[in-house]
Every structure is written in structure tokens, then in C-alpha cells.
């Protein structure tokens, strides 16, 4: 099977899971919240105002990281449980969103799903998201990071030492302080 076809299949599988199945699962989970006596403002405009500041950057990170993985890494994101649907990256990507987080797609997806939980006003969705984020960290450490260390050796080890796993390290440039003379 050619790399092009594997990329297409990988993006179809990934999009099905991350854009359809998981959001639908969050919606279904939110229906169970009707029994929780915790009330948020229910107006749609308020829910949009609460959720969009998380949704838009999350979507940006997902798209940005996919572009860098494809263009620079020459691979795709659909690789799980040691099954590579799309081609695995040929080059370690450490620029673009990957200079801020080793897993910018996870960070972006987390923001998108967090925004969905906020929009749905679902405490259960937010709790489930926290649990799955914790499980995701364990999975990434046990499988993906081992594979990347095997594939990219010391370059990945150095990268891992300097870049946070999921939550981006954003460095704000500070102005030099001038001493009064």
C-alpha cells in the first residue's frame, strides 16, 4: 500500500474517532448530567462565550500539528497500540507546535473536548476528560515515547528533557530592564 493511501486511511480513521465518535460520546455522557443539581447559565450565547476561547486554539493546535507532522516529519498521526495506520514519521519534529509541546495534537484535542464539555454544561464530560487525559499520559509514556526513543535515540531524549509532554511551555519574552543612570 502506498504512503499516500495510508495517509488517507489514517486521516479517515483519525477524523472518525476524534471528530465524530469522541464528541458524540461526550454529548451522550452530558445527557446523564440532568440529574446533577449543579447549574450553569444555560443560554447558548453564554455557553459559546465560555467555550470558544478553548475551541478555537484547540482546533488551531490540532491542524497546525498535523501539518508539521506531515510536512516535516513525513508521517501521519494515526499510530496507536503499535499499529501504524498512516506512515510513521521519518524525521523527529521539534519545530512549530512541537517546540511548545511534545504532543500538541493531544493538547489541541484536549482544548476542543474541554470546550465541548463547557458548551454542553456537563460536569461529567469534564471529569471524563480529566480521567482520559491521565490515561493518555500513561499511554504516551509507555508506548509512544518508547517507540520515539527507539526511532530517534538521543535526539528524542534531549527533546523530551526540554519540552513538556502535553501542556505547552509558552515563553513570554520579557523586556530588558534598564537601570537608571
Overview of this protein structure:
This protein has 181 residues and is mainly α. It has one domain (3-162). The chain is 62% helix and 2% strand. It has a two-stranded antiparallel sheet. Strand 1 (79-80) and strand 2 (83-84) form a beta hairpin. The chain is globular.
Largest pleated sheet: 2 strands, antiparallel
Strand order of the largest sheet: 1-2
Low-confidence stretches at least 5 residues in length (pLDDT < 50)? 175-181
Helical fraction:
55-70%
Order of helices and strands: HHEEHH
Total domain modules: 1
Mean pLDDT: 84
Q: What is the structure about, briefly put?
A:
The chain is mainly α and 181 residues long.
Task: Draw up the topology in text.
Elements: H1 3-30, H2 44-71, E1 79-80, E2 83-84, H3 104-119, H4 123-162
Helix pairs in contact: 1-3, 2-3, 3-4
Amino acid at each position: 500500500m502506498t504512503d499516500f493511501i495510508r495517509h488517507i486511511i489514517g486521516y479517515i480513521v483519525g477524523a472518525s474517532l476524534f471528530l465524530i465518535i469522541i464528541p458524540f460520546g461526550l454529548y451522550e455522557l452530558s445527557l446523564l448530567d440532568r440529574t446533577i443539581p449543579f447549574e450553569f447559565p444555560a443560554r447558548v450565547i453564554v455557553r459559546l462565550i465560555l467555550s470558544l476561547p478553548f475551541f478555537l486554539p484547540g482546533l488551531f493546535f490540532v491542524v497546525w500539528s498535523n501539518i508539521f507532522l506531515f510536512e516535516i516529519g513525513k508521517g501521519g498521526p494515526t499510530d496507536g497500540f503499535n499499529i501504524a495506520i498512516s506512515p510513521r514519521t521519518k524525521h523527529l519534529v521539534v519545530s512549530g507546535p512541537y517546540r511548545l509541546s511534545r504532543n500538541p495534537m493531544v493538547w489541541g484535542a484536549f482544548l476542543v473536548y474541554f470546550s465541548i464539555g463547557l458548551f454542553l454544561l456537563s460536569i461529567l464530560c469534564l471529569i471524563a476528560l480529566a480521567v482520559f487525559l491521565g490515561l493518555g499520559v500513561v499511554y504516551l509514556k509507555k508506548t509512544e515515547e518508547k517507540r520515539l526513543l527507539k526511532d530517534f535515540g538521543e535526539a528524542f531524549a534531549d527533546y523530551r528533557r526540554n519540552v513538556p509532554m502535553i501542556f505547552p511551555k509558552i515563553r513570554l519574552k520579557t523586556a530588558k530592564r534598564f537601570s537608571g543612570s
